[in-house]
Amino acid sequence: MTGFEGRDVWVNGRRAQSRNNRAAAVVQPRMGSALIDGDPQRLGGYWLAGRLGAGGQGVVYEAYDPAGARVAIKVLSGDPAGHPGLRERMAKEAVSAQRVASFCTARVLDADLEGPRPYIVSEYVEGPSLRAAGRVFAGDELHRLATAIATALTAIHDAGVVHRDLKPDNVLLGPDGPRVIDFGIARTLEMSLTSTGVVTGTPGYMAPEVFSGERAGPPADVFAWGAVVWFAATGRDPFAGEALGAVMHRVLSAEPDLSVLPDSLRGPVRAALAKDPARRPSARELLLGLVSGDGSLDTPRLVSGDGSLDTPHLISADGSLDTPHLINGDGSLDTSRLLSLGVDDGRRVAVPAHDPALGVLAEDAYAALAPEDRELVPELFLRLVTVTDAGELALREPRRSELPDGVERVLAAFPYLVSATDPVRLLRPALPLAWPRLRAWVEADRDGLAVHRRISAAAGRWQEHGRRDGDLFSGSTLDDALSWAAAGRRNITLTPAERDFLAAGAELTRRRSRRTRLAAMGLAVLLVVAVAAGGTAVWQSVTLAEQGATLTRQRDAAESARLAAAADAARDQDPVLGLLLSAAAGRLSPTDEARSSLVAALADPAVAAFRDPDTGPDVVRSLTPTAARWSA
Length: 632
What we know:
Layout: E1 8-11, E2 15-16, E3 42-43, E4 46-54, E5 58-64, E6 70-76, H1 85-99, E7 108-112, E8 119-123, H2 139-158, E9 161-162, E10 171-174, E11 177-180, E12 187-188, E13 198-201, H3 208-211, H4 218-234, H5 244-253, H6 263-272, H7 283-292, H8 335-347, H9 358-367, H10 371-374, H11 376-381, E14 385-387, E15 393-395, H12 407-413, H13 431-434, H14 436-444, H15 446-464, H16 475-488, H17 496-571, H18 575-588, H19 592-603, E16 622-623, E17 630-631
Antiparallel strand pairs: 1-2, 1-13, 3-4, 4-5, 5-6, 6-8, 7-8, 9-12, 10-11, 14-15, 16-17
Transmembrane segments: 518-539
Keywords: ATP-binding, Kinase, Membrane, Nucleotide-binding, Transferase, Transmembrane, Transmembrane helix
InterPro entries: Kinase-like_dom_sf, nSTAND1, Prot_kinase_dom, Ser/Thr_kinase_AS
């Protein structure tokens, strides 16, 4: 299914720069081989299942998208950073494939041309290549196959693309008819020849003019069509040779034995293999002749030079039109109808092929197990996958000691999918996406797979380090693990080592809790003592303060009483002084004596005292009749 194995490079038709034609192709297996060291497990969102083929330009992998759909991914060989042309070449391949109608090729679904490993994702076509089918075609079946390939070639050329590497390896015998794949060295008719004289392809299917340094155009694809049809009839390459020089000589001068072909194909194949490209029919002319049953294409010109229909070549000997349904009202050829007839012929090419998807293989193996062994299957496969802390699905390789008893019978039932080594690993990384049953198991235990991964890894370290307490879980990590182990598991049974690990962690936590409680009790006693001592000191401090306040009040009260007594004594001689002393006594302390003194001062009618400045014995004073003043 790869279609690009074994290409060789020539300069000016003289020198090969890669391996010879005997290594021109790798026979396509019915099921892809396992990945090898250096192969990625995933590309973007696609998980790889195995290799479909490899060659000088790159590797094609069977893969599965996030929804579990089967796809083919082509990855270029070489370092894109060191060879910028690799990305450009892959971009051209994607453009060429996308221009061609999907009914005749593998539809391009996705591409990443900017990453470190550029790749193209295409539709997966179930079925072997024409070479890998390992059989020959004859009679009507061969005619239908030739028609289907001519139909694809017509659609390719109508899209403005020249394939340049049509060969048995690039014809897939799909369930709905043959498909032409691999546009790795294809070019569109608008592209210029950037490296003059440098051409690529597979020697035994390259046209003579290409060996001479001419640019490969649509006639070169027609030549390859004739060689492919001859291969389908014989199972042999038409220009095979022991060395590249021998292959080139046969292409340039030899004529294959066309007697092996049915009469309906001898003329078209002879015309297609003409050494002069100008004498070859176009792909459209080939298809028209095959559909109309016209096998006399020694000098085919069913379509005139201006592209209009050359009607005489479609008229029978009795003058009737063989294929009137291909003629439009204006006399032009109905290309859509022509292609439709070719596609219908292709769908009648029946090639039994056993190319099951991974999910089918896994389900068949599961169904063949005894009921008691089926119970071990989720135990096995859920230990081969995990979920990262970021929530992404990942693979893991468990030790045999992690697996349940009796798992050997399960491993023996899945030899294509799982290794029986230690540690055990998935041979097909895409299986968790490709097998619906495993997808369901993963989803049911998805939240717990990350927890189990941590438990398994930590239990392994704990065992290896002599079961030290320092390697045990604690805190929230232990709580999460115990919670999942007790109530969150669906299809995973803990191993004895994992159970011992969690039990030891729980026991260590209990021991630490007891020590913590004892320490807390001791701290509580010390706290009570400290609080009691602090309370005594506070009480003593409060008592002393209260005693000081009492003494102060007593002193103030005594002084207030003294001032009140002095105020009463002074009032008769000096009412003003008496009033001031009463006020001072009341402010110092509100004693009964101070209050009485203030009341007496307020009730005293005298507001001032007069002192006679002349106090001699002869001085006599008397009041005026109004008593308003004294008189001498």
